[in-house]
Amino acid sequence: MSEASKSLNFIEHIVEEDLRNGFDPEALRFRFPPEPNGYLHIGHASSICLNFGLGLRYEAPVNLRFDDTNPAKEETEYVEAIKRDVAWLGFEWDQECYASDYFQQLYDWAEALIERGLAYVDSQTSEAMAEQKGTPTQAGTDSPYRDRSVAENLKLFREMKEGKHAEGSHVLRAKIDMASPNMLMRDPVMYRILHKAHHRTNTDWCIYPMYDWTHGESDYIEQVSHSLCTLEFKPHRPLYDWFLDQLVSKDKLRPKQREFARRNISHTVVSKRKLLQLVEQGHVKGWDDPRMPTISGLRRRGSTPAAIRNFAETIGIAKRDNVVDMNLLEFHMREDLNKVAPRVMAVLDPLKVVIENYPEEQEEWLEAENNPEDESAGSREIPFSKELWIEQSDFKEEANRKFFRLKLGGEVRLKNAYIIKAERVDKDAEGNITTVYCSYDPKSKSGSGTPESQRKVKGTLHWVSAKHAGEAEVRLYDRLFIDPTPDQHEDKDFLDFVNEDSLEIVKAYVEPGLLEAKAGDRFQFQRLGYFCVDPDSTPDQLVFNRTVTLRDTWAKIEEKAK
Description:
- The protein folds into 4 domains: about 20-100 and about 215-325, Rossmann fold (3-Layer(aba) Sandwich), CATH 3.40.50.620; about 110-210, Alpha-Beta Complex (Glutamyl-tRNA Synthetase, domain 3), CATH 3.90.800; about 345-460, CATH 2.40.240.10; about 470-560, CATH 2.40.240.10.
- About 25% of the residues lie in helices and about 25% in strands.
- The strands form 8 sheets. The chain has a 7-stranded mixed sheet with strand order 12-27-28-29-25-26-13, with helices on one face. Strands 23-20-21-22-14-17-24 form a 7-stranded mixed sheet, with no helix packed on it. A 4-stranded antiparallel sheet has the order 4-5-6-7.
- The two termini are about 40 Å apart.
């Protein structure tokens, strides 16, 4: 489907209507405005793809602007992580901007509002101000400081800036309407005192602007044409417009705020506060833990950027908040990895196989296709020898006719190798099978063209040569929460639903070529799933993360639970 023929989402319809009404396409500018108080998560991916996608569609610049107005929660670590994530997703920003770049301009404008009688310093406690706000059905009452003189307001505000007052002693409020049906318009706070060092301005400032004051004015300074926010900011739009009404010049572009739905995803949480709680309380091992819904966590787990972009495009842009099934994200992971991940063999739950009629010292190298979905991927050679590893679950002493793997007296084909037949087993003192002894047909080698090689057997197993295999640690990740909506239960804490079995660590054997793999390399372990080399890997210890299973196993689990 061509770009032109794709149906437009409602945000694109807004832009198209503006263009039809005479808006200059050269004046289009968008922005992605994260607050650097945590790592970006999958919910942010929709916003990233929306804003940067609009930039690509209309050949318009997109700013990356950090809403860094709260030094108590923001860190340079988060700034760098956000930049890394946006770039990894494949997007380039035009300008790297910070709300802190505009602190002086915002302050100057605040003084101008004071001089015009549109802002005042309030010296009440936050509790008193909250009580005076009223309710949605009852008007608020004026602060006793609402009618301070301009001179007194300017004096106090400047003293606040100079650090002469304690935190919580004063705030600057906009003077709007304490009877407004929109609670946000009831003299909102514009500045608060914070004696904390900022990650960029250090201790230059003792007062910091609130989001509602900063947001629209930053858009105006940057001449952003369309300021796109999640639905929670829809009630804020009248305040966004009120602040702009006081400042905009007719010869400059006026930004337009529009809202779209936040997309939550099942079996996880996307609140930064709750994600930070998971990190700080040790439920995960960091913001980039592969169980986390953060973009860095998904990258470490092995997702491709294309999978996340395709996921964002599939769920689209909506006007109502909803929960998207994790299965859809995993579907896109599988679909993209199927195209790009080389096929290799690894055994995660090993059982020894000895081929008794294979010569003791013989070994051979067999040709194996790297990716049947990609002809250009070529092939590789894998070693074969007398002793092999197969999966424990691929053998049974006795099995019914529907078991198409190895059983006593039964035959299977070893992938890219020979047909083998199970003859007998060894067991330990507890009765556990330790070794399966087999015979092989020397003329049944895959691809040899012999009649024996073309003989049909129903089962094909993956394997690795015991003599040549490398050892690896494999981390099998599962859903972080056992409940699809862990934070939507009024009577329970979301942590009550943490999946205690979300990580299983096993020792595996892998084909020797994988010992050269580097952190971030992705593979399909045949018949098992998609895996990625973890940064924890060392020259002496290879570590793989399971990205996703070959098939959706959770759908069956949840169906049984109904």
